[in-house]
Every structure is written in structure tokens, then in C-alpha cells.
TrEMBL record:
GO terms for molecular function: protein-disulfide reductase activity. It comes from the Bacteria. The lineage of its organism: Bacteria, Pseudomonadati, Pseudomonadota, Gammaproteobacteria, Vibrionales. This is Thiol:disulfide interchange protein. It comes from Photobacterium leiognathi subsp. mandapamensis. The chain crosses the membrane at residues 6-29, 38-58.
Amino acid sequence: MMLLTNYPIIMAITILCILLSCVTLWFICRHPIPYKRLYSIGLGIIIGLCSIFLFTTIKHLERQASLTPTPTFIAVHSIDDLELALAEAANQHQPVLLDVTADWCAPCIAYKKETFPAPKVAKQLNQYTLLQANVTANTPQDLALMQHLNVTGFPTLLFWDKKGEAVTQAEVIGFMDADEFSEHLRQQALHIQ
């Protein structure tokens, strides 16, 4: 996990080392320096090692991303859809998370791309029936659903327990990064179960 959080720094340092090594190698080749051949070999090795490190890091991150399952949300378009989904989840004794989102909402997009797919969050979300109401179109059904849910801002995340009862203290309005949201889910687990 440390590698993933420091990835931009690792990438920048590796690229900087490669660039500095290339500039130094060019300088050595253009100017007479004692042990020129030895310097050239040493810098070539450094460039090679940095390149190998950079590409293995990228491959590792790609492999990790492919192993982490992205949570799948069920679309909800109306109050009837929501009530049906809540009833099904209650029958299966599963808590529910409803993401009320819009395509124009930058924090909503950040949840989708950063927070929900984060490994620790995705693992926690596996315990939930995941619903999503995309209200971008602002249709009468969207407006009725938002009014029914008392949505006052975006993104809004609403929770129901295993019995189908709303858990208002778990509600989230606004963005949380993966660490914050994971902690929120952990804290609310007692209320939601």
C-alpha cells in the first residue's frame, strides 16, 4: 500500500535519475575525462537499473489494479425502483448503500474513480447491496426521488441496515477520500448491521 500512495514520488525520482544519468553520460562523451569508459559503464548500469525499476513498478501497479474488483452498483431510476431494491436487500439481510450522483459532479466522479475502487473500500463495500441514482437528466422521476430522499447536495451517500431501516447518522454529503470513507464505513458498521 505504501508503494501505491508514494507512486507519483517514486515515478518522479526514477525519471529524474534517468534524465540526470543521460545528461551526465552525454557530458562525459563530449568532454575528455579520466576513466571515461568506467563512468560510461557505471552510468549505463544506473540508467538500466532505474528503467527496470520504473517498468516493474508500473507492471506491479497494473497487476494490482486488475486484481482489485471494482464495486458494481445497481441503477435506481425512481422511488419504486428504490423501494423494490431495498425490499430485496432486506430479504437477503444485506445493508444498502445508495450513491446519489450526477455526471457533472466532480466529487461524484472522484468517488467513482478513486474512493470506491480503493482496495480497502471495495472490500468493505462487498458487504453491501450497492445502489446508484444518477440524477443528471433532472427528470421528474429524478426530482421526485431526490425530494423523497431529502437530497440537499452532491454527492449524497445514504445507508440502510439489514432490516431495511434508514441509518441517518451514516449519511454522507460531499467527498471523502478512500481512507476517510473506509474509516466512516468501519465506524458505521455497528449501526448498519
